[in-house]
Amino acid sequence: MSGVKMHRRGTGTVAALGIALAASIFSARSASAALLTLDDVTLPGDPVTVVSGADDAPPVATNPPAAEGAANAIDNTVNKYLNFQDYGSGFIVTPSRGASIVRAIRLYTANDAPERDPSSFLLEGSTAGANGPFTVIYGSTVTLPGNRNTQAAGTAIDPNTQNFVDVGFANTTAYTAYRVTFPTLRDGVNANAMQIGEVELLGTVVPEPATLGLLSLGALGLLRRRR
Hints:
By secondary structure, this protein is mainly β. The protein has helices at residues 28-35, 209-226, and strands spanning 12-16, 19-23, 39-40, 48-51, 81-83, 89-93, 100-108, 120-126, 135-141, 164-168, 177-182, 194-196, 198-205.
């Protein structure tokens, strides 16, 4: 079942770049409730690096296309990211908000060509920045809705009206950079590229120590006033 606001969860095992990842069952109802309190830890303009995978077609001179680069994956609009070196392609992002604990991923469909949709993903995190090393956080098969997000270029992402899929998972480790790659596609035989409308990494930003100190001082002041 697919469509607007459907929270679906892939199950099974994905051989992702040589790493076998077991996927556990996560119900649609519990996913919806759990994700209500999570925030997208990335912002438009955060540093993004293209990850190109294996090219199963003749080389393309400009990859990604100038108007469909990896930055589109986190720009909060329907503008898509497309990569002709499709299997294993994706991106690395360093959130400007600092360290965060990601516990879910949200994938929006692009405007056309459902055969290009990822059918699996691999999420990794780094505490040493965009150059890694990276640690596997989670990976799974995934089925994006068949419906497309065909709104005009630049239209803001809206989970209330647009098509996406959520995948939630257990994670308690904070990272400062993330690598998202898509090892497989919905129809790799007919697809000439990987594409995704938007990727949201849902979790909580870890407060800086100075911020925690200010919060503690504020709490102490509040207690004193109440006394």
